[in-house]
Design a protein that fits this description.
The complex is a heterodimer of chains A (236) and B (521). Chain A is built from 7 helices and 10 strands. In chain A, helix 5 runs parallel beside helix 6. Chain A is globular and about 60 Å long. In chain A, 42% of the residues are buried. Chain B is built from 15 helices and 20 strands. The chains are: A alpha/beta (236), B alpha+beta (521). The interface between A and B is large, with 51 and 48 residues.
Chain lengths: 236, 521
């Protein structure tokens, strides 16, 4: 392979390793937690155990990931979020009796995160300001060993999958009248485990207002929207 | 059970017990006129004060006018009860089965005592002899059929004749000439007097059925008492077992782990003692005394019940809570049960009970790293402000009952759904500006000075910070509450805003300043 020999070896190796990593599963028997039907599009196969997800742009979206596992009896945790609003969590279907909050871990973020993921099924955490890559990979190994899921709000170097809000709009509020009623989020998901191709989906909150027919309709509209976006991307 | 014959009772009465108790505990001098006062009225007074015309129920000022050298003290029923406890024990030594009717008045069944001491009068003199060396040396004794008659007999003794014995079956005749006030029924007595019943005998002569029909159950009971048919049995007190555990440290200990280790055995005894009584403890009180005399006292509730390790954890947390380290070495730790429950109500299910031990253990470990208040669970609260609707309870504590009550109330004027995912624990200052850069205001009629156009994260007077264009908005929604309570009163206007990025905010205009209350993110 002359091309390989001529190309500079380090970036190439990194690229190949990245491709291998994105295609291989980290464990042979990957188990997954359920997700809300509305999130199926973004996370085919559900919320993987042992994964670290990074969610950027919306706390509600991160909470929505917790909703189905919590409704099925999983214990959940919230780390480093002193301004967490439990009412929003209740509306999404999260059981407050099985939700544990650690608002201020101080400088022991990593230790507390590890201790929480040891015992709780899913943990949402606000990323600390300073992250050391070696420590994140150690936390990742611990997650895989314990089979729990970490959802990090904000950038996370060791994330197995990333959910990014690319568009947000609100319905119900005019100029001087009305009230916030419905939120539309456009979310892009990428990562490994059947997600190496970025996916886009449009979500509507509150979620429970959507009947199945409305969901299908929305999905159809969504597909069209995604296609247009794809065209736009190519054009751009 | 009014048909049952009244039980023969011995009543021991200590005259002026509140005064005796107050003098014995050093609150009042021994040889001058004194009185105890509650709500501006004389509750009890000494014999010296009574000679000057001071009476129960007199206004304080009137009492001082009659007896200028009167010394007064606020009445404390706890002192009474505490001082009477040793007296009840002395009586119990001579005749078992004491019932304390009130501090200063106790009763025992006459039958066993009369048989043991060969005669009721001998039993009475035995009791008086035993009490002579105590502070209740002036005690009097009445013996009759029924507690009420015996009590009245005791009141009618004299200093030289300290026992009054009403023969068996003679109680109705003994009670008949007594004034109707002896019933001590403040509502019934004036009415009976107006009806012409001036003595107990007059009242007893009325037909029992008529009395019940006219005066109800309370009247019927009073009638039975007046007729010498007091149905109350003598119920011997059951001593409550003392579960408290106290450990004194000599010399005092200055390290948390030392104290915790030294208290470990006591914590295990504490829980074992409660379990042996077939109880479980759902709340404990921990009192920690430091060498320099300061005391830390706190109640700890448990959602289920305490184990020895958990009791020890609470002691440790309380020690750590007093400012990281201890201000001075610890000399004493006391743990007492605050609430107990029957163990049968707390049986573990066949598959154990939630939360499972592993989770509890893991979270307790985080608590030991960060402190008791660092691991929380949220319970719904009530209120109009979002921060009030979020009640955080430390892991391992029972949620406050107040929050549950508040959460069940309707709270008109609270926000419509959906609730925001980020509720700031403390309001954050912002600026809301109109199109030309002036701060938006709301007038008395609730009209907005100009449509809000900009949301700035900087505080007034400073430039810089993020500046977001407002595309949609609604408000003002007035919030006025608790004007009667100066510390919790609130007069504010709420707005919902959507900025150009499609993010929604809940802002608040209070006293001319803008705050962010929540972020719909």
């Amino acid at each position: 392979m002359p091309t390989l020999a001529t190309a500079s070896p380090t970036p190439l190796r990194e690229e190949l390793q990245a491709r291998i990593r994105s295609m291989q599963a980290t464990r042979l028997d990957e188990r997954a937690l359920p997700t809300l039907p509305a999130l199926q599009q973004l996370l085919p196969g559900g919320l993987r155990q042992g994964y670290a997800y990074s969610v950027t742009g919306s706390t509600t979206l991160a909470l929505a990931l917790l909703a189905a596992p919590s409704a099925q009896g999983a214990w959940c945790g919230v780390l480093g979020m002193p301004d967490f609003g439990p009412e929003a969590a209740t509306r999404l279907g999260i059981d407050l009796e099985r939700l544990v909050l650690v608002p201020a871990p101080g400088n022991q973020w990593l230790t507390v995160a590890a201790a929480m993921t040891d015992v709780l099924g899913v943990v949402i955490a606000r990323a600390p300001s300073r992250v050391v890559p070696a420590e994140t990979s150690r936390l990742g190994a611990r997650l895989r060993q314990r089979g729990s899921t970490l959802v990090v709000l904000g950038e996370w170097p060791g994330a197995d999958a990333t959910l990014t809000v690319v568009g947000s709009s609100w319905l119900g509020l005019g100029t001087g009248y009305g009230y916030l009623s419905t939120r539309r989020l456009e979310v892009e998901a990428s990562g490994r485990g059947g997600m190496h191709r970025p996916r886009r989906a449009r979500l509507t909150f509150p979620l429970e207002e959507w009947s199945t027919s409305a969901l299908q309709e929305a999905n159809a509209a969504e597909t069209r929207a995604t296609e247009t976006h794809a065209v736009d991307d190519r054009a751009g | 059970m009014s048909t049952r014959n009244p039980v023969r009772a011995v009543v021991v009465w200590c005259p002026d017990w509140p005064i005796v108790a107050a003098r014995a505990s050093g609150l009042l001098p021994h040889d001058s006129p004194v009185a105890l006062i509650a709500r501006g009225e004389v509750v009890a007074c000494s014999a010296e004060a009574r000679d000057d015309g001071v009476r129960r129920g007199l206004r304080l000022r009137e009492a001082q006018a009659r007896c200028p050298e009167l010394e007064t003290q606020a009445y404390d029923p706890v002192v009474d009860a505490r001082a009477f406890e040793p007296i009840a024990e002395v009586i119990e030594e001579r005749v078992p089965g004491v019932q304390v009717l009130r501090p200063g008045l106790a009763t025992v069944r006459a039958r066993g005592a009369a048989r043991y001491y060969r005669g009721e009068d001998r039993a009475a003199s035995e009791l008086l002899g035993a009490l002579a060396s105590t502070i209740a040396g002036a005690a009097r004794i009445g013996i009759a059929d029924g507690i009420f008659a015996a009590e009245q007999a005791a009141y009618r003794t004299a200093p030289h004749q300290r026992t009054l014995l009403v023969p068996a079956g003679a109680s109705p005749q003994f009670l008949a000439p007594l004034p109707i006030e002896a019933l001590d029924e403040p509502k019934l007595v004036p009415l009976l007097k107006r009806l012409g019943a001036g003595t107990l005998g007059d009242f007893a002569a009325l037909n029992e059925t008529d009395v019940r029909a006219r005066f109800g159950e309370d009247g019927a009971r009073a009638h039975a008492r007046a007729a010498g048919r007091d149905p109350r049995p003598v119920t011997a007190r059951v001593l409550e077992k003392d579960f408290d555990r106290v450990v004194e440290f000599e010399p005092p200990l200055d390290r948390v782990d030392q104290v915790a280790f030294a208290f470990r055995a006591a914590a295990e005894e504490f829980v074992a003692g409660i379990t042996a009584a077939r109880l479980v403890c759902t709340a404990i009180r921990v009192v920690i005394d430091a060498e320099r005399g300061d005391t830390s006292e706190r109640e700890w509730a448990h959602p289920r019940h305490f184990t020895a390790a958990e009791v020890l954890d609470r002691v440790r947390w309380q020690l750590q809570g007093s400012g990281g380290g201890l201000s001075s070495p610890i000399s004493r730790v006391r743990v007492s049960p605050e609430r107990v429950d029957a163990v049968s109500n707390h049986e573990a299910g066949l598959w154990g009970h939630a939360p499972d031990e592993r989770i509890h253990h893991g979270l307790s470990r985080i608590q030991s790293m960060l402190g008791h208040d660092a691991v929380l669970t949220a319970v719904p609260g009530g209120g109009r402000m979002l921060a009030e609707r979020r009640v955080l309870v430390p892991w391992g504590d029972a949620p406050p009952a107040v929050a549950r009550v508040a959460a069940g109330r309707p709270w008109p004027g609270s926000l419509p759904d959906p609730p925001p995912a980020t509720v700031f624990a403390e309001l954050r200052p912002v600026q809301v500006l109109d199109a030309v850069g002036e701060a938006v205001e709301v007038d008395q009629r609730g009209a907005v000075s100009a449509p809000p156009a900009w949301l700035c994260s900087s505080v007034p007077g400073h430039r810089g910070g993020d500046r977001l264009a407002i595309t949609n908005w609604a408000g003002p929604w007035p919030l006025q509450q608790r004007w009667w309570d100066a510390t919790r009163a609130r007069r504010a206007d709420r707005f919902q805003l959507v900025d150009a990025r499609g993010e929604a905010w809940l802002v608040l205009l209070e006293g001319g300043r803008w705050w962010v209350e929540a972020h719909y993110d």
